[in-house]
Amino acid sequence: MRSEDELNRVIALYSDMIKRICLIHLKNHADTEDIFQGVFLKYVLSSVVFENDAHEKAWFIRVTINACKDLLKSFFTIVPLILLKCMNKLQLKFLKRIRQLLKQFYDCLKNIVRSFTYIIMKVIQLQKSVRFWEKM
């Protein structure tokens, strides 16, 4: 774990760069702040020993870009409320349509089963009558 002095030094050096990278990738200030905090938290908790300033800077750039990509491909990204309301309406319409189609399918299937049952019953009756006539 790194000291507070080290953290203050890297924040002074790299904070603007990290915010710019985040804004370029995310185009959102709230997500930028989240990634910004996450990158410096990773730095504080990491035990990486940097060879020089260029290595340290490259590490910050890479960690920032990876964190942005992880956020963008995350399943739990934030969806605007208006979009959620529209999605709910579309989902309800979709579910109603599915329900209608299933009912139609069920009615059709019910008719097929009835017809099949009727045919089977006729075959069974015919078979019984043939057996009856064979016995005579």
TrEMBL record:
<feature type="domain" description="RNA polymerase sigma-70 region 2">
    <location>
        <begin position="12"/>
        <end position="73"/>
    </location>
</feature>
<dbReference type="GO" id="GO:0006352">
    <property type="term" value="P:DNA-templated transcription initiation"/>
</dbReference>
<dbReference type="InterPro" id="IPR007627">
    <property type="entry name" value="RNA_pol_sigma70_r2"/>
</dbReference>
<dbReference type="GO" id="GO:0003700">
    <property type="term" value="F:DNA-binding transcription factor activity"/>
</dbReference>
<dbReference type="InterPro" id="IPR013325">
    <property type="entry name" value="RNA_pol_sigma_r2"/>
</dbReference>
<protein>
    <submittedName>
        <fullName>Sigma-70 region 2</fullName>
    </submittedName>
</protein>
<dbReference type="Pfam" id="PF04542">
    <property type="entry name" value="Sigma70_r2"/>
</dbReference>
